[in-house]
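User: Modeling request: complex.
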Amino acid sequence: MKSKLMHLLQASCLLLLTFVSNLAAAEVIHVAAASNFTAPMKQIVKEFEQISGHKVRLAFGASGKFFAQIQHGAPFQVLLSADQAKPLALEQAGYTVPKSRFTYAIGTLALWSVKPNFKVEDASVLSQGAYNKLALANPKLAPYGLAAVEVLEKLSLKEATRSKWVQGENIAQTYQFTGTGNADLGFVSLSQIIVNGQIKQGSAWIIPDHFHRPIRQDAVLLKRGENSEAAQALLRFIKSEQAKKIIMAYGYHPPALERKAEIKS
Amino acid sequence: MIFTEADMGAIYLTLRLATTVTLLLLLIGTPIAWWLARTKSWWKGPVGAIVALPLVLPPTVLGFYLLLAMGPNGVIGQFTQSLGLGTLPFTFWGLVIGSIFYSMPFVVQPIQNAIEAIGERPLEAAATLRAGPWDTFFTVVLPLAKPGFITAAILGFAHTVGEFGVVLMIGGNIPGETRVVSVQIYDHVEALEYAQAHALAAGMVVFSFIVLLGLYGFQRKQASLGMKYGG
Amino acid sequence: MTNTLTNALTDNTIAASFRLAYPGDKADGFSLDVDVTVPGNGITAIFGHSGSGKTTFLRCVAGLETADSGELTVKGDIWQSASHCKPTHKRPLGYVFQESSLFPHLTAKANLDYAIKRSGVPFSQDLYERVLSVMAIAPVLPRYPAQLSGGERQRVAIARALLIQPKLLLMDEPLASLDSARKQEILPYLERLRASFDIPIFYVSHSMDEVAHLADHILVLEQGKLVAQGNLTEVLSRIDLPLKFGEETGVIITGEVAERDNQWHLVRIAFDGGELWVRDGGDALKQSVRVRVLARDVSLALASHDDTSIVNRLAVEVVEISQDQDEAMALVRLKCGAEYFIARLTQKSVHQLQLEPGKHAWAQIKSVAVVR
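Assistant: Request completed. Predicted assembly structure:
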């Protein structure tokens, strides 16, 4: 636990920094964020706006769509992707400010059920096979889906379970399939089912890190944000301890806690 | 071949879905259209509005409610489970039911308009010639409303082919079962496989264009026939 | 007047009783309340102004309109009772609508076949040929309705209604949609229809001219109520009806062609009480004819004058005088033998001639039309 004083200090430092560096009028910036990051991002932005005085317009959606939109002139200054591939591709195509890419969160995968007759605690529920459908995000499109498939491979259950797969186009839809009870089991993002550190409904197996490659979610400053003080301030804020606390509260690992090196660009 | 095997599977599935839905909609939609065209009941307004809802609702809204309704705790889900059929989401027949709701106005409205255009008189004339209700339907209503039925079938088919939001919500993207062309295109786009997406999307555009061109040509022909024979 | 009630129990009458009300206040609401028995043969005209309920009455008879309460017995068959109402398609009737009701997707021939197939009685080639010849439609059979003239369409429609071999033929102003030239073209077909087929006909019309030509009986409706009924001649000779026929007020006289004057192209028609000279319409000697004398064409003189252009003068007796709908005019009912005439005079003339029931006078008749 950090002391209150420490927090106060941090906050006032930031405030001062923003004040000094941005004597001009507050800016309005447009930020595209992956839908799995909706809840923490709203809170982050709320606190950022209080501190900085800038206004942040948030758009949530599928990273693939943002990727296409940014290539065709969408007015975003910052992208918080659900994966690493799209920020990297944008960087290689020259749509980003060099060296601005970083991992802002590492997703945690959970196997979840809302059905009272399913007590999900470990992989045994998968191997027993007594469920109707297994929902997962489309592995071709969503990093959470890819991770889910890696888990199944690790458990040597991929082929055995394949006939029961139902694929959501993204992790939000996978949550719907499972949350409405249409699928008995689903691989979802821990951030979707956690409230104040508790699973809010049903039961879940929080999948240990070693079952799949980390689900790194990268942020990047886009060319349109190159000269935007507010965009840069937001990215700095996301790296701050204050933001990391929020990110962790929603079941993500902050990048500082993970051990492996980031992908080289 | 520009299409992959998965693409071909999706195309075949889409055609099977659209055909099934169109046939069922003609069966279900005709009595509804008949009732809407002829009733003087207070319920005409509300029922007409419910049928027309998919015209204005985002398909995802419809899809979301269908997912809930057909789910294990939903009304439809409870019913299908009691029949021992399990639940409908993620199945071909689930898509069929979703598409029936979704394409309903495109089938009901042309038929309704056609029946309304016939008016009361030919039906009364048939009754005075001892034709019972079914006889009247097959010998008077059907031939006179034929253009409406053809328009309805074409629109219902084409609209089901073009359906996306509802399928996305209740489909679960299962190859051969629920992965239709529009979902396949979406997957290609999302996966940045733009060339594959283009092939399917262009095919879709051409298909829709030909269907509509044929439809308008048919309607123009009917209009000129109407001038010649429609006393 | 025949007491129609005494016929109610025999099998050759049509007894109809309908009561229905459409909601609405007095201005736009409508109600029908008719209880009537008519003979089960000949043409019964259902006459009234528009909005009088005559078409509604006909539709009730056909079952196209459901009365709030109704009873209908046609020649012994119960079509509607308090507990049961046969749907239209179960009633052995024929119906000719105001405007063409031919199926537009079928040729004239196919329209006729539609009826033949459903008539429920074996096909009769003889009847078929008679219908075709009476309506003179054989040449137009291959055509679609849209390719027919208005008159041809109605003739095919009438033929179709006949081929169903109905027990009762209902005609709802079958000439209303035609212009007057076409009407004159069709009227003879209707007269031939009447002469050739022994089917009772209900004929709705607001045209006294058509009624005078065709009808044997008449029901007069006003605001949904029956105001007069009976034999056509009797009803038309009454001047006490609440419904005024205006310029069309006139009587029907039935007589026989007694003499032909070839020099002046006239024929003499003898009737019980006198004779009338009318234009020669080619009717054979001894043939029974019907002539119509309009009240406006009848004037009165107290003495016989030879020095006028008027050919027809009849000795008459004033029976009854009543007010016409126009304040200045009076209707005077005149008896001439067994027949009645009506004269439409100004009130001033009535006063000057001191007309009153029982007074004898000379009726001068300016114009007479043979209507059948």
